[in-house]
Amino acid sequence: MTLRIEIDDLAKYFGAIKAVDGVSFSVSKGEVLGFLGPNGAGKSTTMKMITGFLTPTRGTVRVCGYDVLTDPISVKAHLGYLPEGAPAYADMTPDGFLKFIAEIRGIKGADRRRAVDSAAERARITNVMYQPIETLSKGYKRRVGLAQSILHNPPVLILDEPTDGLDPNQKHEVRTLINEMAEDKAIIISTHILEEVHALCTRNVVIANGKVKFDGTPQELESKSRYYNAVVVNVANIEQNAFETFLKSLPFVAQVEPVEGAGFRVYPKDGQQITAELSEKIRENGWSIDALHAEAGRLDEVFRSITMPNTGAKN
Amino acid sequence: MNIRNIWFIMKREFNGYFATPVAYVFIIIFLLLTGFSTFYVGNFFERGEADLYPFFSMHPWLYILLIPAISMRLWAEERKSGSIELLMTLPVSVFEAVIGKFLAAWAFTGLALFLNFPLWITVNYLGNPDNGVIVASFLGSLLMAGGFLAIGSCISAITKNQVIAFVISLIISLVFVLSGYGIVIDFFSGWAPKTLVETVSSFSFLTHFDAISKGVIDMRDMMYFISLIVIWLFANALIVNARKAD
């Protein structure tokens, strides 16, 4: 069975507020699903319903085939969860805390020590195992929470902002760890750090106002950017206005706009790749190219246009 | 219901009491107050009898003040720190968690109670008490403490604030004790129907503990405290379920 998480028409209302309103998606083994959305979009609420902490107003969640409403204990046994803010028992040491988790997770005897050591090693907290959690830095607390969530090697992992509050090195380590585990797990990561879309995710779901606005690969997400496959080009030996007219006359060009001090940005028609064709046309005219490079999509711009479509968000 | 889960939760919670100085402070205060109430209020020596009645008879009043201090953290702290989200997404049921935490608090109370054993040694040194009565009273007191704790644990689940949990638990405990107190009964018996007065006083800890503190173990008194614990813990689980995510 490769389908690990199935969410259908999931909704949660708090009084009149529709925190989550009809969310559906599924996650298979080997997928790292980046769950994006602005603060308050319903990411955490959705995760809390998947993990059985919140009861949905309507809809179903199945984890490894178990329904969270009818068999919550089986669902909880099959997933590892890092709640937002990585709560833990502050007066315990990571060692005591992880042992407790291992006990509750039903890991017995020598396996318990092994599971605790292995999780501590992978989350890189071995040097703080005997200090009270309340004395640890934010980064370490986060990693203690991460160690807790992967301790029992669960087939499904739900991580609510796992890299929040970490420094760049720690972020890199956590991403490496998640990538290492990605192959044989189904993982959902909520984040609003867009660089993680590329660093981590095989798929993205964007939600806003409790509804799914996008579900696809990071490439598909990028291709929604108006900068996707745009080309910045600068040519030395021709007058700028003439060059602009020339660019506009090309059949595959949709739009041309000047870039400050560095030539023009050329937007292709239908998001096609135009780098090769463009450079060929320029060479045919005998001009020498100073600069020519294709742009990737800009995720922050896509993010804004998807989650705030009515505010006319541009770059 | 998984006994292992209850045990693991109980163990963690019990050790949690000793992670901070709170446990030691509590035990010292408890021992000072039991000593004070036994010797000064209960006139242990002046009575000239080899028993621990002065010690046990003061317990309902001590528990009103001290048990809410033990129970207040059980759920309020869990909700405040957010660790309840962790606990409730582990493969444990709400009932297992409620019972585990309750048993931890009960075991801690039992330990504090047990540390009064020098008193038992004293009374055995001074005279020839009926140790059967003392053991029965000890168990009865522990059972009553369980009743107070179940109230406190339930109240602890309705708030994130430990001080509020403490105050409300204290007031409810006070009501449960006072409803059997002479002055209160007299106040009602003047005008209220006899059955009402009896009903109110039958809910009192005092009514049920009085016999126990004299070493008389009556099944009805036992059942009173046991059903009290069951009912309050059941309510506790319902409240945790309803309010865990607030």
TrEMBL record, chain A:
<keyword id="KW-0547">Nucleotide-binding</keyword>
<dbReference type="GO" id="GO:0016887">
    <property type="term" value="F:ATP hydrolysis activity"/>
</dbReference>
<dbReference type="InterPro" id="IPR003439">
    <property type="entry name" value="ABC_transporter-like_ATP-bd"/>
</dbReference>
<dbReference type="InterPro" id="IPR027417">
    <property type="entry name" value="P-loop_NTPase"/>
</dbReference>
<feature type="domain" description="ABC transporter">
    <location>
        <begin position="5"/>
        <end position="234"/>
    </location>
</feature>
<dbReference type="GO" id="GO:0005524">
    <property type="term" value="F:ATP binding"/>
</dbReference>
<keyword id="KW-0813">Transport</keyword>
<protein>
    <submittedName>
        <fullName>ABC-2 type transport system ATP-binding protein</fullName>
    </submittedName>
</protein>
<comment type="similarity">
    <text>Belongs to the ABC transporter superfamily.</text>
</comment>
<dbReference type="Pfam" id="PF00005">
    <property type="entry name" value="ABC_tran"/>
</dbReference>
<dbReference type="InterPro" id="IPR003593">
    <property type="entry name" value="AAA+_ATPase"/>
</dbReference>
<keyword id="KW-0067">ATP-binding</keyword>
UniProtKB/TrEMBL annotation, chain B:
<dbReference type="Pfam" id="PF12679">
    <property type="entry name" value="ABC2_membrane_2"/>
</dbReference>
<keyword id="KW-1133">Transmembrane helix</keyword>
<protein>
    <submittedName>
        <fullName>ABC-2 type transport system permease protein</fullName>
    </submittedName>
</protein>
<keyword id="KW-1003">Cell membrane</keyword>
<dbReference type="GO" id="GO:0140359">
    <property type="term" value="F:ABC-type transporter activity"/>
</dbReference>
<feature type="transmembrane region" description="Helical">
    <location>
        <begin position="21"/>
        <end position="40"/>
    </location>
</feature>
<feature type="transmembrane region" description="Helical">
    <location>
        <begin position="97"/>
        <end position="121"/>
    </location>
</feature>
<keyword id="KW-0472">Membrane</keyword>
<feature type="transmembrane region" description="Helical">
    <location>
        <begin position="222"/>
        <end position="242"/>
    </location>
</feature>
<dbReference type="InterPro" id="IPR051449">
    <property type="entry name" value="ABC-2_transporter_component"/>
</dbReference>
<keyword id="KW-0812">Transmembrane</keyword>
<dbReference type="GO" id="GO:0005886">
    <property type="term" value="C:plasma membrane"/>
</dbReference>
<feature type="transmembrane region" description="Helical">
    <location>
        <begin position="60"/>
        <end position="76"/>
    </location>
</feature>
<feature type="transmembrane region" description="Helical">
    <location>
        <begin position="133"/>
        <end position="151"/>
    </location>
</feature>
<feature type="transmembrane region" description="Helical">
    <location>
        <begin position="163"/>
        <end position="184"/>
    </location>
</feature>
